[in-house]
Amino acid sequence: MYDGPLDDVAINVRTKSGRLLTGRKLANSPVTRACLESGRRLAERELLGFVGEEHMHRPLCTLTRENIANEAELIFREARHDERTARALFGTPPDWTKAATRPSIGTMKDRWRTLALYMGDLVRYALRDRYSLTDGMLDEATRAELREAAAFSVAVDKVAYEDMKVVYADETSARFQYLVTGLADFHEQIREALDGVYRHSFGYWRDVYAEILAARGVSLRPGISLDELTMMLTGMAQGLSLRHIGAAGGKVIDHHDRRSMLGKAAQILIAGAIDPGDGREVADVVDELMAVRVPPDEDHRKPGRFRAWTGRFRRGRP
Fold first, then answer.
1. Cα–Cα separations (whole angstroms), residue 265 to 66, 93, 114, 236, 298
2. Angle at the Cα of 55 (from 52 to 59), degrees rounded to 5?
3. I need a labelling partner for 231 at 20 to 30 A (CA). Which of 13, 115, 251, 300 fits?
4. 3-state DSSP call for residue 81?
5. Neighbouring C-alpha atoms within 13 Å toward the C-beta of 37
6. Cis link prior to 93 (omega < 30° from 0)?
């Protein structure tokens, strides 16, 4: 359970009162935190298929005020025998006087007038894991491999496998991210929350790629910017992880050999993006590689139709 500040997460609660101190206090209150954690747990059960045997007619259908308040009350009770939950809700050491105000439909409405406002804060809360997962992706030893290892392809395969396995394929937050992406066009706050996740991931990996290019003394082909390369590589990771989640037979990740399709795709992209010294744009290289080739010793003209000659030979004139 997340125990950090909620000032930039429960934004709708913080700005509700119009007063800075009151808003921050309300945003970081045990009831607010329990309600957001409640929604995350309810969504997780849906995404992992633990909602029971009944068929789900729409995504996130369990996120009703009643269900959220009931689950939040269970989290309050959980704090009595779980130290981590107690610290997250009531501080260190836990101040049990804060438990006097309990989660309910009424206290939830007091914080979020509509479920749409709650959804905006919930998305920010649920997706905050994406930030910490990205930040902890590469340790210094792995970064050193990417900068210095002779077998660069091996280092790429290693990072790509871990990226797919940890950050995308095996995380509930990834599934939640893809689910709410479909709602982004209709909910401004969801779109803003997703944009924050993408910008954070983009900035992290852009710095990594810049560091690798500088350390290895290589540059990109003319017409390819570092921003474009970063967007292509992160976009491939997101697309392949979505494929892995939605198509079990896609063989995107090979756990036996600890490799992934992302590793191969990244190497193919890098091979085309790095300038070997010829200074040519990638389009020129592609045109040359894909030019139609006809072996000079073969005639591919269509054979003419055979016709038997039945005329008579002319006699020469005397």
1. 46, 49, 44, 8, 36
2. 95
3. 251
4. coil
5. 24
6. yes
Provide CB contacts within 8 A for 127, sequence distance 6+.
173, 176, 177, 193, 194, 196, 197
281 pLDDT band, cuts 50/70/90, is: very high
Range with the poorest average pLDDT among 5-9, 157-161, 292-296: 292-296
Q: How many Cβ atoms sit within 10 Å of the Cβ of residue 151?
A: 9
pLDDT tops 90 at residue 264: yes
Amino acid present at 109: K
Q: Give yes or no for a contact between 119 and 193, defined as CB atoms under 8 angstroms apart.
A: no
Beta bridge partners of 274: 220
Spatial separation of the C-alpha atoms in residues 197 and 110, rounded to whole Å: 28
How many CA atoms lie less than 13 Å away from 45 in the CB half-sphere? 16
Residue 293 CB burial class (10 angstroms; 0-12, 13-18, ≥19): exposed
Asked whether the beta carbons of 254 and 164 are under 8 A apart, the reply is no
Task: Summarize the confidence of residues 275-282 as an average pLDDT.
Answer: 95
Q: Which residues pair with 220 in a beta bridge?
A: 274
Domains and CATH numbers, the chain: 11-113 (no CATH), 123-289 (1.10.357)
The predicted model gives 140-166 an average pLDDT of 92
Q: SS3 for 210-261, per residue?
A: HHHHHHHCCCECCCCCHHHHHHHHHHHHHHHHHHHHHCHHHCCEECCCCEEH
With tokens 């066009």, the residue in question is 185
Residue 256 CA, distance from chain mean position? 23
| Beta-bridge partners for 254 | 259
- Closest Cα partner for 128 from 16, 11, 246? 11
Structure-token match 């509930």, residue found: 172
